Amino acid sequence: MARLNKSSARIALPTFDGDAMIELISKFLKVDERFIPDARGYSLYLRPTMIGTQRTLGVGPPASALLYVIASPVGPYYPTGFKAVSLEATDYAVRAWPGGVGDKKLGANYAPCIVPQMQAASRGFHQNLWLFGEEEYVTEVGTMNLFAAIKNKETGQPELLTAPLDGTILEGVTRDSVLALARERLEPKGWKVLERKFTMKELADAADEGRMMEVFGAGTAAIVSPVRRISWKGTTTENEECGPITGQVKDWMESIQYGDEDHPWSYKVPE
Ligand SMILES: *Cc1c(COP(=O)(O)O)cnc(C)c1O
Fold first, then answer.
1. What residues flank ligand 1, with Cβ below 6 Å?
2. For this chain's UniProt record, which GO biological process terms are given (predicted)?
3. Which of the four pLDDT bands, split at 50, 70 and 90, describes residue 40?
4. Checking CA distances to 80, which of 8, 51, 142, 222 falls within 20 to 30 Å?
5. How high is the pLDDT of residue 55?
6. What is the pLDDT, as a whole number, of residue 81?
């Protein structure tokens, strides 16, 4: 709810009380309980949304708006098990830029990505890997945050990297969850979890030198999406179908989501 409020505020839509919204959604879930699938992997997708509804032509803050929740039963994102994706590192189009709105969940961010996605698809890739700037910083993949597990060049220590929230990165709830779980559960095992800028060259070098372990996307729909290949300037990095960390993260997240594990992130709908 905090993120929807931040996104709304950025485009002059009204904000609302997040706790009250959660209470309303709880009530709605009791009314429509029969639409909540109980098989593992299935869920009721909930997407709070806001649109301006003022019936005038012109550019200005809307005097009326509609806050509503899209609710739809959904099946598993990967019905036949994980399917790793291949990515085209994209330098001819930019998803987000400093001072823009790429860090907000706005519909306006998605339409401009459809043509580059179709172009990548025409060359046999599933998604765009969005690069930024002359340095070619790795930012996000399609509409997911990106994580890379590589071994440090000097020390050989395994590191889990993701781009920092510098205004060009969407603050994914999944990203945040993966970071928290990795800090709690991977760091004691000798990993370093880092939010820092890293370039495509750094990734390609890691792959060349055998230091690339795994790459995966992170977002609500798929939880994690393993990356098999990245094509960049005529070179291609290769990874296995689904690496152990990617699988581990998915299991941790699912066990919290399905209530196998009691966790402070869970919200229990009151009886
Ligand atoms: C929605 C989205 C994500 C993932 O956010 P979650 O809260 O984890 O679902 C990441 N990047 C972009 C560009 C997105 O639109």
1. 105, 140, 143-145, 170, 172-175, 219-220
2. L-leucine biosynthetic process; L-valine biosynthetic process
3. confident
4. 142
5. 94
6. 73
For residue 79, pLDDT beyond 80? no
**Which of 168, 158, 148 lies closest to 218 in space, CA to CA?**
148
- Domains of the chain with CATH codes: 2-74 (3.30.470.10), 85-257 (3.20.10.10)
- Whether 137 and 204 have beta carbons less than 8 Å apart is answered as no
What's the CA gap between 268 and 101, in Å, rounded? 33
Residue with tokens 């098999």: 228
Q: How confident is the model at residue 54 (pLDDT cuts 50, 70, 90)?
A: very high
Rounded Cα–Cα distance for residues 182 and 259 (Å): 19
Name which residue sits closest to atom 6 of ligand 1, judged by CA: 172
Cα separation, 94 vs 130, whole angstroms: 7
Q: What is the mean pLDDT of residues 58-62?
A: 94
Taking the centre of ligand 1 as the mean of its atom positions, its distance from the CA of residue 259, in whole angstroms, is 23
pTM above 0.85, yes or no: yes
What confidence tier does 7 reach under pLDDT thresholds 50, 70, 90?
very high
